[in-house]
Specification:
It contains eleven helices and eight strands. The strands form two sheets. A four-stranded mixed β-sheet has the order 1-4-5-8. It has a four-stranded antiparallel β-sheet with strand order 2-3-7-6, with no helix packed on it.
Amino acid sequence: MIDFATSPEEEAFRASVRGWLAANLPEGWDTPRCPRPRGAAEKVAFARQWQRTLHDGGWAGLAWPKGYGGRDLTPLQHLIFNEEYVRAGAPDMIDVGVGPGLTGPTLIHHGTDWQKKRFLEPILRGDEIWCQGFSEPGAGSDLAALRTRGEIDGDHVVVNGQKVWTSYARFADWCILIVRTNPDVPKHRGLTFLLLDMKTPGITVRPLVEMTGVAWFNEVFFENVRVPRELVVGEVDRGWEISLTTLSHERGTTIPYPRIRHELEGLLTLSRRRSLDAPLAADPVVRQELAQLAIETEVLRIGTYRNVGEIMRTGQPGPGGSMLKLFWSELEQRLMELATRLEGPYAALDEQAPQSFDEGRWQYGALWSRAASIYAGTSEVQRNIMSQRTLGLPRG
């Protein structure tokens, strides 16, 4: 049973989030007086400053334990924060959550005392940006097939190989990196989880320009990169267990519902614009498509609350995160497809064109959404996880 009622304390928390955002967003934010930053470098620089503001206001690391600089808030409070954050149109978070959302929780679970002391506070403050060195050519969905080598050489691990689709790599200070340290055992064994200083000699980063025209992704090449053993998380050859913690947070604690709801509201506004003789939403077929998307968004909301409830009961994200990831990623694609159809020939314009609707928001969103069913585990991977861990079906 899912309880959608919130307590007076939770509503007071919602009011405090809303009030803090209203008081601390840059004056005139998202208006001509204070437009959103443009370009990758400008966005990263702004995000560093904004992360510091969040930290100083007590709004960074909401779910982290207080002993590590967080607020030890419940998953439901985290969801409430995200709802209000998106409602306010607040800036994008730093490094898409790799530092605060993935590295921090992984170190809290598995890091040494020294690693926690060294890295957790700079992550929360935005002093250091992180990237994620997991995917490789031929080892994206099947992460355990990775071939980047890590050879133990005294007090160092020497890394050689390549990673790809590494978001923020050219801006990152540090990287969570998985390498193969033992090639003679089954592929899920013999992996080691490293923390890598991106200024280490032997690293080459090559930006990859996406079809959106933006270069968030990168190729990263490693040639005899020496990583001190003190930067190994957990044990050598036991990195798969560590990576599962990272992936569970990537899929299970991401809260996409508020953003999808915000996109739906924007789509409804778009549909009220006039076509030749009537608003687009007056078309009965369009109305039915909008209603279906609204129903699916409500299903996503219910699923999000259900998953939050499961995390609050068990303390860990489970396979329900895979179901949510599958559902929201494909829902977002359907939403963007309808938006571009409603724009008609204007969908071919980019954000620089004066006739472009919403400054090119829908064109960019449609292109970016194609990646949603690939990153953080493809739709096929999510279906396999659900079939095996939720339904108990045998491996195919």
